[in-house]
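Memo to structure team: turn this sequence into structure tokens by end of day. - J.P.
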Amino acid sequence: MPDHSPLITGVDVVVTNPMRAPLGNFVLVRVTTDQDGLHGWGDATCSGSEMAVAAMIEEHIAPALIGQPAGRIEQLWHTIYHLPYYRSGSVHLSAISGIDMALWDIKGKQAGLPVCELLGGRVRDRMLTYRSVSGRTFDEVLERVHELQQVGYQVIKVQVGVPELESGYAVPATDAQQAATEEAFSRGVPPAETWEPEPYTQLIPKLFEFLRAELGDSVQLIHDVHERVTPSQGLRLACDLAPFKLFYLEDLLRPEHLDTFRLVRSQSPVPLAMGEVFCNPWEGQELWFEHLVDYARHDLAHVGGITAARKIAAVCEARGILTAWHGPGNISPVTHMANAHVSLAVPNFGIQEFDANWDERIEEVFSTVPAYADGHVSVPLSAGLGCDVDIAAARKHPYVRRMRPTIRRGDGTPWAY
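Reply from structure team:
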């Protein structure tokens, strides 16, 4: 049978930073074909490893794609996955993710259909979403929750600063920490942050007790631990938070400690979400097979793109686990569009994070971004992923080194994330 798929003629990488600090760079991938004007865009962003991903694509993956049929997405996925002898890892899978999205974009454009229709069609018309708020104090967090409630958010992620610490995950840093961070950025080196898990684990249940007293059940709440506790501290925190009816508790334990999710599941009813740091479709699969978590939080820019996400969703569907794809501001609108198309098409959708606070420079580079209204996010259903890139505009904002901080305890011990 003749293959009428367009042939791949080029794979180009654009690394751009159309965002304000401290957010990082986007690694964008364009796959071109021998059909005039037919091309696809993908996102291979991997914070802290952007230039490594760009080199991986240009030097080690693109040569294997030239001349190949663009429509054979599954075949090409496995070809470039097995291409390096030492496969997997964040750099390799981010590269694959960007190419995979671009191939789906091409297939949709060729068919004249949005990608969600190629995945079986829409199961829903819009997606429940959430935003994150934070503050140095409980009152600051409450004020920002009220602000989001006023514009319709039904689910909100809340984080708060630990008074003893200068900074923390997704919370405002003190003036002294912010100055030190900016100084490190100016030298192109990683900022340094100090973290102590015990004061944090004692504070967070008090935050939720305060918020529930003030808010009642008027909003559903999420909290992200960001894997910054030990397994025993994580178990205690999960038990302490159970009375406050969280939507879910996110990234409680490190991926190196997946076996300890069994301990948490056996002793706490709090819903759990995990997956944004996984770097291939098979990592963490014991969590799905044993139903040790309730939400799959994979990042489509790191786990293998749309091809990987639809398989993960299918495995989770059989076990009653819902999707909650990672959607922060430091991945590009292309991934947010890919998230949306998969979320629209899978039956076991739970929630779609869309936590981007972009400005007009994003609109100069990208033709489309998801739209928020009334607690939900939606996307226009044009052919492919529906998001093209203005290369000239992207190149006006070149790569800027924005390294992730080194996290250490007060005695100097290195700590995760």
